[in-house]
Amino acid sequence: MVKNPLFRFLERECDVLSNLLNTVRKDFSLVLEVCRAERKSTNAIKAISTAIHADVIPPNWKKNYVVPDTFTAAEWLNDFKKRVDQMEKLVNKTDFGRSGMWYGGLLSPEAYLIATQQATA
What we know:
By secondary structure, the chain is an all-alpha fold. 60% of the residues lie in helices and 0% in strands.
């Protein structure tokens, strides 16, 4: 087991972000399959496609981090992409974000603070 609190924090962030990315990809894939007549529509797929068409963030995408209520689905996707890009950069570095990061782009910035405190203690 890795004892470095910053590593454990980034691992949790990465897991949550990865799961959310898989959910978003799966949802878009299901909607696309329905549009191509490769799959029958369900109530869940209809809800996702209706939300996206209305430029509203689907509820199952909003579980992991808070965004302003005024965010549209397009804005959420742009924000989410930036978060994924940042996590990709952080995972490929060995300094656990010490060389710089977008603090607000973390899913749990408070957990990062706690991890830094634990690492320096």
